[in-house]
Amino acid sequence: MKNLIAESIILGVSFVILGVLLLTGINNFTNRDRIVTVKGLAEMEVPADKVIWPLMYKDIGNDMETLYTNIQSKNRTIIEFLESNGISRDEISVNPPEIIDMEAERYINQAIQYRYNATSVITVTSSDVDKIRKLISEQTELLRQGVAITGGDYRYNTLYEFTGLNNIKPDMIEDATKNAREAAEKFALDSGSKLGKIRNASQGQFTISDRDANTPYIKNVRVVTTVNYYLKN
């Protein structure tokens, strides 16, 4: 008799436990279909830490040897200007001149005054952005020395870059994830639910752009993360 009572108690407890497990499983299964997808944004303004400054000038002439001599002389003038203002020789690269023989251009029908048209470029690559910006504003000194730096060619625009993305990535991802969670918690509160665990998440692509057209040396770094959360009753 005692064995029968004990077996009944054990059986009853087993049924209760089984019922709880089934109910929990059903609730979990139901909650898995209830998710909210949110996006978190993180933005940061950073100064450019690298600059590429091409100094481009043009020269014309009818005699190739004279043209070559003029280019060499102007290159020396530019390099001396740069080095006298604290630019190391390692930061300076001299590109071979691009020379067009105007007589060989078939589309030119009218008489030409100068046969050769040369484009020369000396490029400065530096991590001292402030120093280069100062020099850019002072490059009219080269005009006084007979070298006219030419602008307007998109191939030779000054470029500012930010190379320290890996240093700020962790903090930006943390901020973006935090913003996403805040949005998800607000959604859960408004819908009368509770926020559960993260179902999955994806980190968006980092983008680096100029803050505006007038300050290309200040960059805007941006990332958007997408997070899916479970919702609970």
Question: Any overview of this molecule?
Answer:
- With 233 residues, the chain is of the alpha+beta class.
- It folds into two domains: 33-47 and 164-232, Translation Initiation Factor IF3 (2-Layer Sandwich), CATH 3.30.110.170; 50-161, Protein of unknown function (DUF541), domain 2 (Alpha-Beta Plaits), CATH 3.30.70.
- It has five helices and nine strands, in the order αββαβββααβαβββ.
- The strands form two sheets. Strands 2, 3, 4, 5 and 6 form a five-stranded antiparallel beta sheet that branches. Strands 1, 7, 8 and 9 form a four-stranded antiparallel beta sheet that branches.
- The radius of gyration is 34 Å and the shape is elongated.
- The protein starts with a helix and ends with a strand.
Question: Summed up, what is this model?
Answer:
This protein is an alpha+beta fold. The protein has five helices and nine strands; from the N terminus they run αββαβββααβαβββ. The protein has two domains: 33-47 and 164-232, Translation Initiation Factor IF3, CATH 3.30.110; 50-161, 2-Layer Sandwich (Alpha-Beta Plaits).
The top level CATH class name of the largest domain:
Alpha Beta
In whole angstroms, how far apart are the ends? 45 Å
Please give the number of β-strands: 9
Helix and strand composition category: alpha+beta
Instruction: Supply the number of structural domains.
Output: 2
Low-confidence stretches: 11-16, 18-26
* H and E string: HEEHEEEHHEHEEE
| Oligomer class | single chain
| Total helical segments | 5
Biggest sheet: strands, sense, closure? 5 strands, antiparallel
Rg measurement, Å: 34 Å
The helicity comes to: 25-40%
Give me the CATH fold name of the largest domain. Alpha-Beta Plaits
